[in-house]
Structure formats: C-alpha cells, structure tokens
Amino acid sequence: MNLADQNILFISRANFHGGAENVILQLCEIFNPLVNKIVVCAGKGFDQKALEKLHIKFYEIPDIEKKSIGTILTVSKTLRHVVKKEKITVIHTHHRMAAFYVSLLGLYRNRIFINTSHNTFYNKIKLTQFSYRHAHLIACGEMVKKNLGEIFNLHDVTAIHNAVKKFAGPVAPDLTLTALHDKGYFLIGNIGRLTEQKGFEYFIDAMPDILKRHPKTKFIIVGAGELEQSLKERVARRHLEQDVIWLGFRKDVQNVMSQLDLVVLSSLWEGLPLTPIEAFSVGRTVVATAVDGTVEIIDDGINGYLVPPRVGNVIAEKSVELAENRNKLEQFELAAQEKFQKEFSFETFKDRFIKYYEEL
C-alpha cells in the first residue's frame, strides 16, 4: 500500500493499560508522520493524553467484551460512524472482539483489515474464526502464531515481536526503594495488571520461602486491577505486610525496574509479555513462568530463569539463587541487555511493521 494515502483506524478494548495499548501507541508514533490520518477507538481507560501529544483523534467506545444489547448497539453505531466520517482505509484491530465487530458489520469491505493477536487462546473457536477470517493476521510472537494455527486453523499469520524503547533516563529515584537499598535489602519486583492471568498469588506464596533463606529481601508489586484487595488479604494472612510494598499503577515502569534487583513474572498465560522485555531493556534479569511467548524472550540459565507456572517454591528457589550469587546475576543482566538489542528493540519493531504495511 501507499502509506501516504491511508487513513488508519486502530480499535482495542476498554479500560486497560497493557501490552496491546503500548503496541497501539508505538504504531501511532511510527505511522503518524507516514500516513494521512490515524484514529483510535477504545475505552476511556486508554491513554488519551499520549494520543493528544501526537494530535491523533480518539473515539470512546464501551468495553467490547461486554455482551449487553446496549453495548453491542453503541459499539456498532460508533464504529460505523467513525469509519464513514474519517474515511478509513485501513482497520487494525487489537482484540478478538474488536475484530468480531469489524467482521459482523462488514467494515472490512473495500478496506485493508489487519488484526494483531496479543495472547494465546483455547476457547470460542467458531467466534475467533469468524472474527479473523477476513483479516491479515499478525501474532506478537511465534507461540501466538502457533496457537492460531493449531487451535483455530488459521495459518496465514506473520509473527512480529513486541518491543519497547530503550530507557533513556535519567533515573528518577523512588524514595521508598532508595531507602530500602540503603538498608541493604534485595528488591524483587513483580509488575503487571492485578488479574488472574498474572498469577500474583504464586509470587506471594513464594515470599515466605525467600525470606527464610534470604531475610534481607523486600517485595515490590507494581500494578492495579480487580484482584488488588484479595491479594492484599493474601499478604495479610501470611503476615507479610511489612515485607511487601505496593506501588500501584505506574507509567514509568522502566524507571522503577532500573531500581530493582530482580524481576519476577508469575503469569499463567501470555502472548509475548512486555515485562521481561522492559526488564531486559534496563539490564535486569527475570525469573518467569515458562508459558507461551515468555520462552521466546528468556533463555533459561543464560539471561534469566524459567520456572513452572503455579509453583511458588520454584520461584523462591531461583530468586534466592540469584540474590546470593551476584556474579551470576550480573552475567544474566549482561546477556539480557544483549538479547534486547538483538531482538526486541523499538528500531527492529518499527522496520518490521513499516515493511509489513507497505507489502499489503
């Protein structure tokens, strides 16, 4: 396609801060100077301020995962209106239900329709096939591509790894983290939405074992979500209130990570998670569950450790090993930086997406 002639619409779900939103913002930055127009449709939780800086128009829609008649009618009406008013030529969805609406409403007709899959799924096979059948498919990693082929029989898929920009700094010190470091504590962080997917309960379950073997440890949880209260209750039942610091949702994730000693990713499933890529970008290594696309990022025993999901004691074992062996930790950190530069840099991501669009 001739990029300069295109009006692109990105559609995603409502009320979330995560990998898909980050990818959309990256694509907005990449294509904004190259195309005629970019428009974004998502929920009110989307980072509208970032779009305003790029002078990109935003249309709010209800959460597309909700199945009420009111939601369906409102989303349908809004999408039809936006496509017509903004003279959209390219629709790029970033959620299965977003693609469903494009297919249901026939918005793909006479337009280029692209979908990026950010996670692996094993349910709603017919719905997924219907949603994606008219789309050019992108997977955020090889495991997501494999999932689309094996589970949904979708084989015309291109894998393009997610990426993050290298942290330019300078580090803005977090006073709480600085004070803990000054007292000699080893800081282990877990960053993500406080949802079932991220498996924070297993991170909490690992904490007593870590403290028994390495008492000078504090645990940093960065994120917000529907499980926040239940996770805090889990911490209280284990009498860990003095050992866990809750930083809430933070936009400066790389800045926070650069002030940690180790990052844990306890997810139960992933597409291609940004957390280990962000950690690698600031020279931090990761102990992560060996699920889906995570294994494409972390090379076990080289730049981090892979552990089984839902097993807190193995998280504890590997975390303590690195806390007590700083030479190995430093070796892993150097290897992590090398892997980031080679495979997950923003420059590589940019080149791959521009080439993909141009070839459609």
The CATH H-level homologous superfamily of the largest domain: Glycogen Phosphorylase B
**What summary fits the major beta sheet?**
7 strands, parallel
Q: Please report the distance between the alpha carbons of the first and last residues.
A: 6 Å
How would you classify the quaternary structure?
Answer: single chain
Order of helices and strands: EHEHEHEHEHEHEHEHEHEHEHEHEHHH
CATH 2nd-level architecture of the largest domain = 3-Layer(aba) Sandwich
Please bin the fraction of helical residues.
40-55%
Look at the helices and sheets and give the structural class: alpha/beta
CATH third-tier fold name of the largest domain: Rossmann fold
Put simply, the count of helices is: 15
Q: Under the CATH scheme, which class of the largest domain?
A: Alpha Beta
How many domains would you count in the coordinates?
2
Strand order, main sheet: write it out. Answer: 3-2-1-4-5-6-7
Strand proportion: 15-25%
- Principal-axis shape equals globular
Low-confidence stretches: none
Residue-averaged pLDDT: 95
Number of strands: 13
| Backbone CA Rg | 21 Å
